[in-house]
Amino acid sequence: MTVTTELADVLTAAALRWERVAFQTGPADRPGAEAGVRLAYRIAGLAEPEKIIWVGSPAEGARAVAALGAERPVRDAVRTGPWERARADAHASLGITTWSLAWSLTGGRLWDPANRLITQIRRGIAATEESETLAAALRASTLDAVLGQQDAPWLSLFDALDRPEVEGLVQVARSAGWWWPFERVAVVCERPSELHLDDLSRLHRADGPALLFPDGFAVHAWGGMPVPADFAASMATLTPQRIRAEENAELRRVMLEHFGYDRYLAESGATPLHQDETGVLWRIELPEDEPVVMVEVVNSTAEPDGTFRKYWLRVPPSISTAREGVAWTFNLSETDYRPARET
Hints:
The chain is α+β, with helices and mostly antiparallel strands and 343 residues long. The chain contains 14 helices and twelve strands. It has helices spanning 5-22, 30-43, 58-68, 75-94, 96-105, 107-126, 132-142, 152-160, 167-175, 231-234, 240-245, 249-259, 261-267, 322-329, and strands at 51-55, 179-181, 185-189, 194-195, 211-212, 218-219, 221-222, 225-226, 274-276, 279-284, 292-298, 310-315.
């Protein structure tokens, strides 16, 4: 089979639908989700669960699952088995080449953003416990979850191909968040009430939690990196001293980017490492981290108000002259960099 224009359109439309599903917020469609859960059990050849328990977040779900004790999990029958059959049959009917193209138009587009979100939710759940043993137990519980709306990468492909094996899983994912299937009980999560992403589909928010669930479970993130709850508020009062004192190297980098390298250099009393006609080379030493080395260059074209705009180019720590740094940005050696006119 080949990917015709018609099939490509179907696959692309499915990816767009499931991208919305993956990051959808607001109250779950509880009747729809419960109908999907029961259908998933029937497709697996199991009796429908006697009880469906709703929880406010994956964190609450992980705790509820830990408290169930002797309940027998049926995830393999409800999710793993149908999933593998759908994938094997689709792969066989499409063929290797068409399968790869179909995946690239659906799940391949959604895989990275969905998995970043899944990883941060799991880390956030573990972080709610100070005890490493309890944190590990909660994280282990999340590995047994069916990921609902965040199963979007694979479900976008299966849905586009109308695979009946996963119809129940598709219905739950469109209606709710993570869920755990057990022999007599299913635990189902609400969707997030808030979800904030940057242009790269990473969790990001400057004035509150980037991810918030109805029960209060939250994940704070800046540019996709988990940060403390008070991190955003502290950014307004940053100083060079506070930046240098930060022990977490990743947080320190975020602070520097937010504060501004030029401002940091000016307020920290830094002196240039080297200067020539191409610009000024600066070096910022950071504890337990590689130094930040930047070339300050001036645009040769004046702005409308007559001023000349400065730019800061980050270069490797091994750079020792301004010219070498500018040349590196053009993938040239210092000796080969001889522009007729710099702009």
